[in-house]
Amino acid sequence: MRAPLSWLREYVTVDAPADEIARRLSISSLEVERVIYVGVADVDGNLGRFLVGRVIAVEPHPNADRLRVCHVDVGEGEARQIVCGAWNFEAGATVAVALPGARLPILDVPLDERELRGQHSRGMILAEDEIGLGDDHAGIMVLAEGPEPGTPLVDVLPIHDRVLDVTPTINRVDLLSMVGLAREVSALFDGDFHPPAADDPAIVDREDVDVTVEDFGGCPRYIGRVFRDVSIGPSPQWLRSRLFLAEMRSISNVVDVTNYAMHVWGSPLHAFDRTRLAGARVVVRRARPGEELRTLDGTLRRLTTDDLMITDGERSVALAAIMGGEESEVTAETNEVLLEAANFEPLGILRSSERLALRTAGSNRWEKGVDPYLAEPAAVLASRMIVDLAGARMTGHVDVQSGLPERPVVRLRTDRASRLIGLVVAPDEQRSLLERLEFEVSPEWDVTVPTWRARDVTREVDVIEEVARVVLDRVPHTMPLRRHVRGRLSKDQRLRRLVEDVLVGAGLSEAYTWSLAASDPDSRAIRLPDPMTSDQAILRTTLFPGLIEAARTGLDAGAVDIALFEIARVYLPSDEQLPDEHWRVAGVVAGGYEAVKGVLEVLYAALQLDLRVERGQHSLLHPGKSATTEAGWLGELHPTLLDGVWGAFELDLTTLFAPVPERVVYEDVLTFPAVLQDIAVTVDEDVEAGALVDAAREAAGPLLREARVFDVYRGEQVGHGRKSVAIHLAFQSPERTLTEEEATAFRDEIVALLVERFGAELRA
Amino acid sequence: MQREVREFVATCHLAKGALVTSLTLMDPQALENDARAAVADASSTDDVERIRVEYLGRKSQLKLALREVRDRETGMALNALRERLAAAIDGREGELARAEIDRRLTEERVDVTMPGSPVRRGHLHLITQIRREVEDIFLGLGYTVVDGREVETTRYNFDALNFPDGHPSRSPLQTLFLDDDTVLRTETSPAQIRTMEAQGPPVYIVSLGRVYRRDTPDATHTPTFHQVEGLVVDEGITLADLMGTLDYLLKALFGEARRTEFRTHHFPFTEPSIEAHVSCHMCDGSGCPVCRHSGWIEIGGAGMVDPKLFEFVGYDSDRYTGFAFGWGLERIAVLRHGIPDLRELWRNDPRLLSQF
């Protein structure tokens, strides 16, 4: 919302400059997006060069058909001759004049005296767009009569102003009004608060106003007022200017009045051409099935039975609280007006406005819950202005309501407020700041909440917030006592970091890929009923497709030697409401099976685990080059998935971490040296190296400290379908030095078992 | 010395009159002269090694003679000779080794600006680095890190957090629903509730992870992003404690010279609520494009835990108070590292990954 300060200062007396008001408001009340400087500059007495003038005489320009020569009294005794191109005024008009030397926002250089087609011109009669008060350039501003010639223009129009661009939080719809903002400023600066107090016009030739509310749940209050002899016309310049600075478009006097009163009080109003209402009636009800309405913006809206409508008993005439209908719109011909100052329940309005994708200044307020008491001062202000500005008579008034809500009463413990805030705020100060916000505080500290805060402030803690926000910039910075804390990562959290660090050390970079995927290998994977895009429709059960995509991005970027990993959750379907979420680590690395196996060997070693794999199948892997482990799988990526040869793995971290020992216990590998022996055996091609190593361990027992395949040879010497596998053996005892003879005995037992089990032949 | 040996050996000849073959054939003086000449001629440590083998090795004349010697005097004399030769050889070897090192030191040069042998190095994702940094800050303060779940019930994601009916977050326009009662969490806050349900006060936790919103991706929005959630519940926790903690966090993240400012705000789960701002780290408050010329940067929301949350989990809200905050990690990445487009954090282009 835009709040011109000149307007705000009409309701609150404070000396503070705009920036200070903005700063305090932003700390204690609402977001101030910015302070906008509008109008003409206040430098070198510039403001003194803008004066109210009265046109004494207007003559045709002797040399130009489209110009006129005016004589304008600006309080100097002698009238100034000013050449003017506008035709919307005659002698006697009160106008705004800029004198030579004036700096205008639309000109780069000061205005100067000059000859215009041979006629001297000593100033300029101003149009609103020339001093930032509007966008109309069809004619000059004709001011209301009253101010004497020579009056500084700044006393009449906001030609030099600061406008606050503010956004209240959702609970502070009371701040979407000039009155609410002024009250807030008065509380923060202890300034005098004086909201507008319009005299309600007297009703003349009273007539009944026929208003029926069928749905008080949706419309708790409806004030209807009737005006006759309404002259629709343009609004006076001061009103046009204020609306312009408040970012509202001037339409006509009556429509402008409804917007103005909304801006002042925060309670939206609507004006109907009463003659367009069948039977001059108003019935508030939900829309009928299939009902349609063409709203003011010219769009035909299809309604549902949830939408609240203003009807004339026969047809809908407005989408309640959101937008009026085109047919009952106030036009230049209107002379009977029904003014609506109602109150609408927020939730239904929000739903209708969301469904219709139609948000207006009105719905923006209603959906946050407007105080039903505000309908009345808004109606009074608007009525006064319709009578004053459109020459109308008010002939009827009705206030239909289902009973207005009680004001909440809350007991405040001032010491609790101080304790919660962490700053001692004296009870007197708490009382005084609450009262400035128009909370009533009894001697016993029963706090009665003002009607416009009744939705938001219902508990003691809500009242404490009122105190806290006003003193917020005085609250000290302290630390909690922390008497019982244990600042430590859990085992799994520590190990997750270890996995990250080991993989980074092994040359893999961490990727982040989406939890939602276009497809998933698991047909039971959870599908969003209403995804944002088809790319993000399924909760993944594997990290793997995302990493393939990431690797592809790398290839496209021209990278070589790509190695990526990710640690993230997968979401496995379960029988419960919520899926099983599992932490996984997955990787994709350039190179084949050996590349990924090497990475996992380093990872397992870092976790103090043995990597044991078995041949296995996975739909995304090369069938001959894939394996499983207890925690997951690894292998060479299926060649159809990505160009080149790639290794890939995915492990479940809970399974992976379960056997990780809490601590490593010292083992004496230093005192007694190991005895090293290597063997090479020939076996059939399909005998797996791992099986040979397992057999070696089985045969030799615990003194075989290490058994590692270090070479595999195929060739004529070993025969077709056979291979030679060389295994490095290290025997070691923590208790004594093993002899060569003992080692040889173990070695012989190993060979014997290999021969027996695999038909191995010893080569060396 | 040499003369003494020669005389000594000659004396042996004369005294014993009967010498064994090798000894008889060997002229110690000539041997020593030859050896010394050879040592002096040696031009490399390899030469010296050859000389050592020739004159002192297992098959050298001297070694053979020593093996055959029978009388003490001759043995002593020959041993002395062996020691002298060994010393001479060692000395020459040392000289030559030093000379060789000296030569290498003068002759060998590398172009020190040439690249080293390549070692592949991976990189942690920027968001992980920030996540760890934030975790470590709070671990240092004694907090525990809690892993919350990502698919949540509306009960934990909204109801328990006091989201009113009609709150925009409850709308499918803003939130990804799995069914009427199940959502992808829209903030990390459900972890607060689950933690409080699982344990009594005091609570000092942070919870970091992915959150999901129905935001159309653009430079400043991705439908998945990361938050850090903090929750403290204890006796006597104050708004001042919250502000002190966030001040500490912000200075740790953005520099000790930063100033912090806290502004009133509104959230369903906190009362009072505040929003933290930090003085701009680019311009230090004088105004620049990063802070949109305000001098301040908005970081995120926080507040005192609403008593309704305590009611929900069965904490005594008269005895305990608490604070909570929930911030985006991406925002820290954008502000501190100048990431121009959040979508890039999910594209995994190696050129970007390897920057951090």
Account of the protein in words:
The complex is a heterodimer of chains A (764) and B (356). Chain A has 17 helices and 40 strands. With 764 residues, chain A is α+β, with helices and mostly antiparallel strands. Chain A has a seven-stranded mixed sheet with strand order 28-31-32-36-35-34-33. In chain A, strands 4, 5, 6, 7, 10 and 11 form a six-stranded antiparallel sheet that branches. Chain B is of the alpha+beta class. Chain B has two domains: 2-107, no CATH class; 126-353, BirA Bifunctional Protein, domain 2 (2-Layer Sandwich). In chain B, a hairpin with a 2-residue loop joins β3 and β4 (182-184). In chain B, α3 runs antiparallel to α4, α4 runs antiparallel to α6 (72-107) and α7 (126-140) packs across α12 (329-337). Mean pLDDT of chain B is 89; it is low at 1-21. The chains are: A alpha+beta (764), B alpha+beta (356). At the A-B interface, α2, α6, α9, α11 and α12 of A face α7, β2, β3, β5 and β6 of B.
For this structure, the CATH topology of the largest domain in chain B is BirA Bifunctional Protein, domain 2
At the fourth CATH level, what is the homologous superfamily of the largest domain in chain A? Phenylalanyl-trna Synthetase, Chain B, domain 3
Residue share in β-strands of chain B: 15-25%
β content of chain A, as a range?
Answer: 25-35%
What is the rounded distance between the termini of chain B? 73 Å
Which term fits the overall shape of chain B?
elongated
Mean pLDDT of chain A equals 94
Helix content of chain B: 40-55%
Q: What overall form of chain A do the CA principal axes indicate?
A: elongated
Distance between the termini of chain A: 89 Å
Low-confidence stretches of chain A: none
State the strand order across the main sheet of chain A: 28-31-32-36-35-34-33
Order of helices and strands of chain B: HHHHHHHEEHEEHEEHEEEHEHH
Main sheet strand line-up of chain B: 1-5-6-10-9-8-7
CATH H level, superfamily name of the largest domain in chain B:
Bira Bifunctional Protein, Domain 2
Continuous helix count of chain B: 13
CATH class designation of the largest domain in chain B: Alpha Beta
What radius of gyration of chain A results from the CA coordinates?
A: 42 Å
Specify the biggest β-sheet of chain A: 7 strands, mixed
Class by alpha and beta content of chain A: alpha+beta
